[in-house]
Amino acid sequence: MHRAGISKQIRLLLAALLLMPLLTGCWDRLEIDERAVVLGVSIDEVTSEEAAERESEVSHVKGSLPPPKQGMVKVGVQIALPGRIPLGPGEGGGSNDTMQTVWVITVVGHSMDDAFMNLQQQVSSELFFGHLRIIVVSEAIAKKGMENINDYFRRNPEVRRMAWLMVSKGKALGLMTAAPKLERIPTLYLMSTLDNSIKMGKFPKDYIGVYWSNSSKKGQEGFLPYVAIKDEQNVEIQGLAYFRGEHMVGVTKPFEVAGYLGLRGVNPAGYRAVIMLDENDPNSTVMTNVTHRRSVIKLRLKDGVPHFDIYIELEANLEEKMSEEFEINNPDIIARIERVQSDASVKFYQNIIKKTQSKGSDIFGFGEHVRAKKPKYWNQYVKTKEAWQEKYKEVTFNIDVIVKIRRIGMKAI
Amino acid sequence: MENTDSRQITLIQASAILISTIIGVGVLPLPLFAVRAADSAAPLVTIFAIGVAFLGIALLTWLGMRFPNQSIFQYGNDIIGKWLGTIGSIVVIVFFAVLTSLTAREFGEVVVTSVLKSTPVEVTVIVMLTLAAISARRSITTFAYFHTFYFPLLLVPCVLIAILSLGNAEVINLQPILLTSPNNAFMGTFTIAALFQGSFIMTVVIPAMRKPKKAMKASLFGILVSGGLYLIIVVASVSVFGAEEIKKLLWPTLELAKGASLPANVLERLDAAFLAVWVTAVFTTLLSSYFLTSVALKQVLHLKEHQVFTFILLPIVFFMAMLPQNVTHLYVIIEDIGRVGLYITMAYPGLLLLIAMLRKKRGERNA
Amino acid sequence: MKRKESPSNSLKAYEGQPLSGSLESFDHITKELFDGTEDLSIRRFHVFGQHKAAMYSFSHMVQQSSVNEDIIKPLMHIPHHLQGRSFAPDELPDVILYEALYHGDVAREQKVDNVIKAILAGSTVILIEGVGEAIVISTRSIEKRGIEQPATEQVIRGPREGFIETLNTNLALIRYRLQSTDLRIKMREIGRRTKSKVAICYMDGIADPEILKELDRRMEPIDIDGVLDSGYLEQFIEDNKWSPFPQVQYTERPDKIVANLMEGRIAILVDGSPLALVVPTVFNQFYQTVEDYTERFMLMSAIRMARLVALMFSLVFPSLYVAIISFNPELIPTEFAVAVAGGRAGVPFPAVVEVLIMEVSMEVLREATIRLPQQVGGALSIVGVLVVGQAAVSAGFASPITVVIIALTTIGSFATPAYNAALALRLLRFPLIIMAGMFGLYGIMIGLIIIANHLLALKSFGVPYLSPLVPGNFQGMKDLLIRGPLGSLTKRPVFLNPQDSVKFRRKENDDAAGKQQDNPSPS
Questions:
Q1: Are A32 and C334 an interchain contact pair (Cβ–Cβ within 8 Å)?
Q2: Of A154, A139, A266, A268, nearest to A208 (Cα)?
Q3: Which of A264, B156, C310, C364 is most buried by its number of CB atoms within 10 A?
Q4: Within a domain: C485
Q5: Number of other residues whose CB lies within 10 A of the CB of residue C497
Q6: What residue spans carry the region label Disordered (chain C) (predicted)?
Q7: pTM value?
């Protein structure tokens, strides 16, 4: 017992001695209020005149480095201003001016990191990307290619995989300076717009991590939300920006997002469809709300080309009709609505697939089905992402849609 | 009042030692190793690796049960003679010292890359090593207590993260489940099997087990649970990310934690929390290899206590940990050493077992 | 070096010396030993009106009325049946003992030193001229307080009695709850000067004799001049004095002692201390209360978990806060993070310093509240919490969230039933905060691992401190995090190595007296 006591003392002493040099440490301690919390980043193209004018000499000397092929970038960041946002649920977020809670700064740079270093030179606190929720890329940049952007954010350990990457119509910076009225912090509003549209079945889960995974896959392409600023400083999701490799190749219509969701069988469902029972009579229109989607994708090889049989089942509720000329009070008329809607849907789905096929951008991941289910074929004829991008154009489809209307609301007719 | 009976370790404790030793920093790059080997057949390769690992531990356990009162460093001398046995033991000791340092360095790199970005890697390594060195001074019974206490802590975060990421999983990422190109898979199997090398600790556990006859059961159980956990992690990451994405990630498991968030946004991302809990996993792994090294040294030098070695080893292990130049260099070394290690941790016991059977050597069976 | 002779040493000079039978010489001895001691009363009288005698006692320690009525009266006034008879001096002790004295607890003593010791202990001693024997009558009567509710261990449901300072009363409290022949009470005397009586209680046939032996081995070498409380003793018998964790439990509840005795533990009571010690002790005892067993098991299981949460809170909460604020703010929700940053914006110190300052001032406040007279204490605590907290925030000295964290931590530490265990965790909080300030979450984990390793290696009388969690024992786990129904707790804790392990046998018609039932025969 005595011995144990002594060795304990020695141990304590040693531990204390070992801790001594560590006391000088605290290398990483950085208080939350000393960090420049970056909430949103926008990435825009920059004209060569503006670039030349604003280029800083932080990471390299001016003129020593030719601008990269895609051109230089203009990065805008939204930094939260501590102290401007009251603690707790206080006097709501009715501020009209974005500048009150956040600070938007723009810089130009050759690459992402270069731009951020230029920015760091102008901001006293250390930039902190742990709360980066929104990255907006302008359409022009997305078309030029996302390699550098993807690489930078994937490499940075602070960036979360649950952040949103999106493509903006026009200038991306606009989304940083927008001041929506619902939230105290504009980017959080933008984020909740997208998160809520997932909950309402209007948009697929497409966080930056999902986008990365999708675009890495050999038999699939990535896509991103395509957003635009509206008059009231609000933001509208205008469709999917789809990619081929790292380059954006096209945009869908907002309603075509429903096509994507239907083909993938994503739930919950939330899109409404206009059904015209009589092609010549606009008054015969009813609206249905799809509540549940199910899709089965069957793959077979037809003449050495993959052929997909897609069965989609939609459950819907009737929401509205335009006139009293006809009554919805018997299964026959419901059956008719179902038939019309399923015919329309087949065309609709075919169109959206064709659209992506023409660009060679398989955002639905049909190629993954080929890779997963026909590995022999895949290894023999496809093997690479590029090969599939070409092959996708030849793939044939057969789409079957079954619509089931379950409920018609509180009205009897 | 110290219990004079040194055979205190129960079946559950022995399994716990194995499990928490095997589960360590290797889990972080594990999906990357598996996917590199076989793309979407990564789970299958993992299962192969579990099989190989079990074969290795089964050989060792079998040998241990033949000599229930001795460890490999003692019966090695009996089986193949004093000189060859000592050489074998020294090779094992050096290997585990290297393994200890690589584990510490690997975790140090993870911590410095992802959480403590400005802290020198030396500091994180020395902290972990000191912790292991101090704890390795205890008796084997306390050593068993350490492992029994920590092993539930290792299972929880892994399973939790797997469950939380289920929402983003896609079955199609796991297909085809069969191998498409067997060549890489072969090497990959051994790379993953090398992650199980900590199970060599069994050789010093068996002589302290209450019923050495149950050692095989403990080994089986230990490999099944830890292997099962490995499998869960591989399946979860492949199904969430897809094989191609994993190839772009250095530590896919950590990335998985990054993507998971607790319900109701209590914690928005789990990577830092996961890493914090993972300190215990790495600690138990380090503790085992450190303990094994110092106990082996004691037995080879025929000393009474292993405590002397814990602090003597510290600077040596630390120095070795600082040798790799950068993180890519580190992983090249880890994979190479791992595969070389298979000869030491599997072929050597196998050889001993064969000779022991041929020469009909046995330990006394009074246990 | 010349040392002043201590009383016990001067008494040593008379060790073994027989009484001479001369009052003169004994007076001489008392004069020498008790020189100037005013409260020693020497009363001279004649036994049966014939024999010269003297009575010695410390007048304030004896019960005067009993001395007058039962001792002096029958001795001075020759009783009825003895009238007319005369006795030789050497017959006298027998006659007095058997025929005259109205007192129960009487003894004879021949040795000078023992007589002196008896006087010191509060007995009344009668010496008769010419008789080489003293009559020692225990007339000790010490003022004691009544049995009250234990102040530190209040319960809502359960017995209300608490130990008091007097050992005999305490033993009686145990004995009446445990009317078994198996209850053994061994007495010891510890303390060179105080000669404190120490009682070691255990259940024969349940308690592990090895542990008893070990306890004896640890008590034997104790050579301290005074044992004023059981706390002195605790520090001599514990396993690891460098550990912040208590390895001996104390309680002032007799029912708790009885429950522990029946689990196979050993209780140690010290005269003059209302707190009994229990060994061996394991960690889970510190968050258990009496109600855990007297109330319904589901409710109490939930409350026990709450207590555990409070325990963990009081240990790690402030350090977690520091780690998240200064190292990993990405963990908390964005809106909250931004708001926290706002709350901290005016605070000049880093979070770790801020938390340390607040924690230290909280400790000061708490200590002050304990020391202050009761009437002032209440006022101070309100003033302290309200004014200091409010003022600190508005002065920009601390952020509001820090105040919340500190408050939660403090309250959490009060939820631990055992004061000494709570103290240990309170103390360990500080190194954890510092670790968190250096390495963030990583540092906290390192700190927790060190603490856990210490706990795992710690033993109390050979019993691993974290039993029955590690080493695991399924039966024991039923009473670890939750408290299983009494009917299912059929075994005594295995880690105590009880001789008779069955606490409760399921009979045909389930007998629910489980806990208090005594099984005389080992299974």
A1: no
A2: A154
A3: C310
A4: no
A5: 17
A6: 503-523
A7: 0.89
Query: Same structural domain for residues C97 and C200?
Result: no
Tokens of A55: 């280029």
Torsions phi, psi for C28 (to 5 deg): -60, -45
Q: Residue C241: inside a domain, yes or no?
A: yes
- C-alpha A27/C-alpha A276 separation (Å) is 68
Q: Which of C112, C137, C162 is the last residue of a domain?
A: C137
Q: What's the number of CA atoms in the CB half-sphere (13 Å) around residue C61?
A: 17
* Domains of chain B with CATH codes: 11-353 (1.20.1740.10)
* Residue C279 C-alpha, separation from nearest chain A C-alpha, in angstroms: 18
| CB under 8 A, 24+ apart: contacts of B323-329 | B323/B101, B324/B102, B324/B105, B327/B109, B327/B113, B327/B250
A30 contacts in C (CB within 8 Å)? 326-327
How is chain A split into domains, by residue range? 32-251, 256-407
Total domains present in chain C: 3
**C61 and C157 in a common domain:** no
What tens digit of pLDDT does each residue of C127-137 get? 888 888 888 98
Q: Is the dihedral of CA B153, B155, B159, B162 positive or negative?
A: positive
Domain boundary among C113, C137, C161: C137
Are B268 and C330 a contacting pair at CB < 8 A? yes
**How many helices (DSSP H) and strands (DSSP E) are in chain A?**
13, 13
Q: Is B119 on the interface with A (CB under 8 A)?
A: yes
Q: What CATH homologous superfamily does A256-407 map to?
A: Nutrient germinant receptor protein C, domain 3 (3.30.300.210)
Mutation for C interface: B126, B145, B150, most C CBs within 10 A: B145
Helices and strands counted in chain B (H then E): 16, 0
Task: Report whether C462 contacts C211 (CB < 8 A).
Answer: yes
Residues C437 and C336 in one domain: yes
Domain membership of residue C238 as a residue range: 145-281+492-523
Chains that touch A (3 or more CB pairs under 8 A): B, C
Judge: B272–C333 Cβ closer than 8 Å, yes or no. Answer: no
Q: Do B242 and A369 touch (CB under 8 A)?
A: no
What value, to the nearest 5°, has the Cα angle with vertex C447 and ends C442 and C452?
125
Instruction: Say if CB C513 and CB C502 are below 8 A apart.
Output: no
Which of the 8 DSSP states describes residue C383?
I
Do A1 and C327 make contact, defined as CB atoms within 8 angstroms? no
Spell out which residues of chain A touch residue C350, defining contact as CB-CB under 8 Å.
Answer: 29, 31
Taking an 8 Å cut-off on Cβ atoms, the answer to whether A216 and B268 are in contact is: no
- In 3D space, the residue among C205, C74, C122, C140 whose CA is nearest the CA of residue C518 turns out to be C205
Tokens of residue C89, six digits: 């001096």
Q: Rounded to 5 degrees, what angle do the CA atoms A375, A379, A383 make?
A: 115
* Residue A268 CB neighbours (<10 A): 14
The residue written with tokens 């090249």 in the block is B332
B130 touches chain A (CB under 8 A): yes
CB-nearest to C464 from B124, B145, B267 is: B145
**Touching check for B126 and chain A: CB below 8 Å?**
yes
Q: Do B175 and A373 touch (CB under 8 A)?
A: yes
